[in-house]
Give the backbone structure.
Amino acid sequence: MKAYSEMSKEELKAELDGLEKEYEKYLAMNLHLDMSRGKPCKEQLDISMGMMDVLNSKVDLRCEDGTDCRNYGCLDGIPEAKQLMGDMMENHPDNIIIYGNSSLNVMYDTVARAMTHGIMGNTPWCRLDKVKFLCPVPGYDRHFAITEYFGIEMIPVPMSPEGPDMDMVEKLVAEDDAIKGIWCVPKYSNPQGYSYSDATVRRFARLKPKATDFRIFWDNAYGIHHLYDDDQDYLVEILAECKRAGNPDIVYKFASTSKITFPGSGIAALATSLNNLEDIKKQLKNQTIGHDKVNQLRHVRFFKDIHGMTEHMKKHADIIRPKFEMVEQMLEEGLSGLGIGEWTKPKGGYFISFDSLEGCAKEIVGKAKKAGVVMTGAGATWPYGKDPKDSNIRIAPTLPPVNELKTATELFVLCVKLVSAQKLLEG
Amino acid sequence: MKAYSEMSKEELKAELDGLEKEYEKYLAMNLHLDMSRGKPCKEQLDISMGMMDVLNSKVDLRCEDGTDCRNYGCLDGIPEAKQLMGDMMENHPDNIIIYGNSSLNVMYDTVARAMTHGIMGNTPWCRLDKVKFLCPVPGYDRHFAITEYFGIEMIPVPMSPEGPDMDMVEKLVAEDDAIKGIWCVPKYSNPQGYSYSDATVRRFARLKPKATDFRIFWDNAYGIHHLYDDDQDYLVEILAECKRAGNPDIVYKFASTSKITFPGSGIAALATSLNNLEDIKKQLKNQTIGHDKVNQLRHVRFFKDIHGMTEHMKKHADIIRPKFEMVEQMLEEGLSGLGIGEWTKPKGGYFISFDSLEGCAKEIVGKAKKAGVVMTGAGATWPYGKDPKDSNIRIAPTLPPVNELKTATELFVLCVKLVSAQKLLEG
């Protein structure tokens, strides 16, 4: 098919007429489909049901070191949970704190602590006139929500398939000591599914920020969330690289089992330098006596070790890979050559990123919503919800059953074509 | 036996010689006993083991409203958990947020939020020159640790068997708008086991603080933790009383199942007015997608309803009541009439509060420790760990097995006598 931009006004008008008729059909279908969030589907949850059986009233709930997991204590996690999460995160167990059910909560608390108490003896951020964060875009809306909530100014930094624009990152952090952090989803990024290149990680580890309390917020949310067993992205391990670069304290690394076992009932972890850990524990001991050790034990008994977890992740991949491939194929078949959109083809993670013509994203998402398909709000992938080009749309293919996903994607493709044709006719 | 104060110097010297010889015997026993913290004992944990069986891989993990508890969502808790905790806290489920595993964490977060964002539109506390909290004494060390961590000035308010000195509380909060809160453990208080009288609760509900963002931090940690089925303290429900008094937003009420099921693996809850809830949820949605719903479901399925929980609490009482009674009897037998100490006889909660002669508490606890019995540090029940009279000691009888508790209490009585005799000889 011809690119829309090469069509005559008449051709485009005829195309639009056809699209509008088709759209009417979808309106009549009264759909209620959800492609908005990175939620696992029912089949993915089912593969972790065995975790509900590993602990029962006959099982000894003491962990390796003899601690009764049913009682108070153990601020930073039971040894075997540190081992498992350490293996998953590629960090030494000594560098790890096991938290509660949400790594987002850990990130929030990390920013909150810096606001009220500062990082390693530095001035609390709440006492500074200005605090800024770098935000690779498109990025994760819940990261941006945390920094916005704390009144932290967010500076967008463009993403490429190699990661954030490191020339810009290096320059900005070296110049401006109000810049205290950067949000990163380094592997299978949200929403593009890009993994930072070795060179990018190297440059992160070698940053020379003007602010001594600058930290990289390294949210390795999809570290083992591959779609393909034989074609995986590998990421240079950031803590080790920072240590080698003489910059050991510059990074906080976050992960959780939310998309491994049950979102909301998993375990979260932070990995960082011993200096940072000491700083954090001074606060943490005032916040809690300890996190849920029984759930830590449940996870360890279920997976046994990192090999068990790796095998488990293959089951997830088998369930969601066909969904990603179907969406990509439908985008290819429906939009290829039309010059009205581009999209990513990730090898892991939870999202496909779609870029429409400028000024079309909000309308595309709006049209899909009107016909009963909820997508992530256009703009959500940018700080303050403001995508300056109004072009980025996050597609979350994991939750809907295949047949629903098919319908939703058909409608999405239709909406892209419809809104693009209108735009070009107006323009 | 004669009161120590009525003994002649020679009598006291003879007494001390005997005590010192006895103390030598304990030193030789090489004890390792712990009466320091309010931790349930193994038998108490065992009665909740059935909770490990109610969920398994064959069980439907959807809650009442159809939500799959295994997936993301539900910021404020599943309906049946709100119902159960509402019945436990004597509040409407609509007034409740279910949190994670620790009410201490909820209290910490509540203070942290007030620091960075203020309460209901008021100035964030971190922007104020001075923030103060009233601290009924003796009180709970972990409360004081939170306010100390945030640099909040703590003002001790004396406790009586009726609760805090309300004349003082009313006067201070009316005069000083830097006073933003008060820490309360209103029922079976920590450490005295006192329950606030009806008049005290009434006066709390009718406070007229100068600061519009003053809040009562009502930590009802032992709301259903009775030692006797037929002799319980009843507390006027504070939210309802505040509403009746035209003061609906003045209180945050906290509770958890930490000492009902498993400490560290229970569920926590906050009850407060709808205005406060709205204020809190604005923050909470940035902090987490939701707490552990599977664990909420586990608790509900285990207890079924508040009657199940009430029956469960009787089992706890049956286990720990003999420990309280034994300690009280031993204190009575060992110290009564000597005029060197007074102690409380609570009908619930986790502690007995002991007051020694002035200037003796630190040394008593030190002597016990030297002989291998760890008590809560003397001073811990006061802000900044500073008991001006150096007399209050918190006794936590629940954790040790009865035989160990017996030995530990014998030693404690001995140390009280020994240090008191020394003190009186010096004085």
Observations:
- The two ends of chain B are 21 Å apart (CA to CA).
